[in-house]
Amino acid sequence: MDYIARSLTFIAIYGISYGMVIFLISIGLVVTMGLMRVVNLAHGAFAALGGYLCTYLVTAQSLPFGVAVICATIGVSVFSLGLEKVVYTRIYKASELDQVLLTIGLMFVTVAGLNFFFGPNVQPSRLSPALEANIDILGRSVQVYRLFVVGVGATIVAGLWFLFEKTSFGARLRAAVDNRPMAQAIGIDVASLYSKAFVLGSGLAAFGGAVGYGMLPIEPLYPFKYLTIIMIVVALSGFGNMKSAAVVSILVGVVDTAGRYFFPTYGAFVIYGFLIAYLLLRIEGGFKRKNA
């Protein structure tokens, strides 16, 4: 029983913390694909840039981890605003194929640039002593950093829910997505709204890459390596559904962690088996409501 309790504690804490990082990175794509109808396969590049900038500030500039995370998030957000004005505004009304080709090209450019400037090796992930410390929970030693990520992720989830559901920004954005001509007719600046939403999504990805660099190693292939996980969250949660994205991200994190814990050799394949089973059940109508 003690072994089972320790195992479940490990899977719950490490799986939820991993899921929170996945949520922070993927929620921006959920927003852009769901609300703005933009297929942005380069989304993981913003997370990679956030992680690289954070590790540089911590290791080379000796900034505290929290300060480095904030600086990295702001830096990538400002960069994404310029990129949105120059590149993305041109594809908002383009076909899905054009969006895929352009954004995947941006991802290749990002990977090549990171490899050129930082080299092919994994970047060091140094945390503050307080976050590197361990505490005992139900007989299992747990790193404080994991609990910190869970707390930060929960705060972001609550903040995003309030932003999109309880503020005029969220209402105006939904109106612009549902009927852009009518929104413009009543005086809503749709272009400005789209820019803000895009920067928000990119900033969240950068924040996730920075906060989560202790779990997801920062390397040039980062945008490719985690694109599959990001797309799994988007596919399972549905476009634009933030609350569902949070639940799915945590579920994916727990399932992936449990698979790797119980099946170290083949654990990496468990999450894909889960995805296939879920999609097959949904296609067959297993998750559809029955008519009364």
Q: What can you tell me about this protein's structure?
A:
- With 292 residues, the protein is mainly alpha-helical.
- The chain has helices spanning 2-34, 43-59, 65-86, 96-118, 129-132, 144-166, 168-178, 180-185, 190-211, 222-225, 227-237, 242-262, 270-283, and strands at residues 134-137, 140-143.
- A two-stranded antiparallel sheet has the order 1-2.
- Helix 1 crosses helix 11 and helix 7 packs across helix 9 (190-211).
- The chain is globular.
User: Quaternary state, please?
Assistant: single chain
Note poorly predicted spans.
285-292
Distance between the termini: 44 Å
Note the run of SSEs as H and E.
HHHHHEEHHHHHHHH
Assign the structural class, choosing from mainly alpha, mainly beta, alpha/beta, alpha+beta, or little secondary structure: mainly alpha
Major sheet: order of its strands? 1-2
Per DSSP E runs of 2 or more residues, the count of β-strands stands at 2
Task: Tell me the number of helical segments per DSSP (H or I, 4 or more residues long).
Answer: 13
Question: How much strand?
Answer: under 5%
